[in-house]
Amino acid sequence: MTVNLTPEQVLAGLGVLAALVWVWRAGTRRARKAADAVRAGSRVVSLAGRVLLMAGAFVGVQWIVIHHIDNRTLLLVALVLPDLIAAHVLTRALTVTEIGTTRRRGDRR
């Protein structure tokens, strides 16, 4: 059995094949972007949960010290220590130490 194809049919077949490859690659890119967006969103929610938990812990300890202990030194420590921790964390978070993006192995430029 022989197949007789005209040059137009060969070019049409190559065009269809190229279109399929293009659609497949576009779908892969779209899926990767969606996965990155979900990952970034979950990081924000996770960070917010941890921040709220620690804030609750600080407020709880401060409330106990303010209402149940008459020691002035302990009161100052309970009020100042969380401020120092928050100042340190905010300073580190807002300080730019590297300019540019970091690339992982296999990322495209």
What this model shows, in words?
Keywords: Membrane, Transmembrane, Transmembrane helix. The chain crosses the membrane at residues 6-24, 44-66, 72-95. The protein is mainly α. The chain has one domain. Helix content is 78%, strand content 0%. It contains two helices and no strands. The chain has helices at residues 7-68, 72-94. Helix 1 packs antiparallel against helix 2 (72-94).
In short:
The protein is mainly α. Helix content is about 80%, strand content about 0%. The two termini are about 50 Å apart.
Name the beta content range: under 5%
Q: What is the straight-line distance between the termini?
A: 48 Å
**Tally of discrete structural domains:** 1
Instruction: Characterize the largest beta sheet: strand count, sense, and whether it forms a barrel.
Output: none
Output mean pLDDT: 81
Question: Given the C-alpha coordinates, what overall shape results?
Answer: rod-shaped
Sequence stretches where pLDDT stays below 50 over 5 or more residues: none
Name the helicity range: over 70%
Figure out the total of helices.
Answer: 2
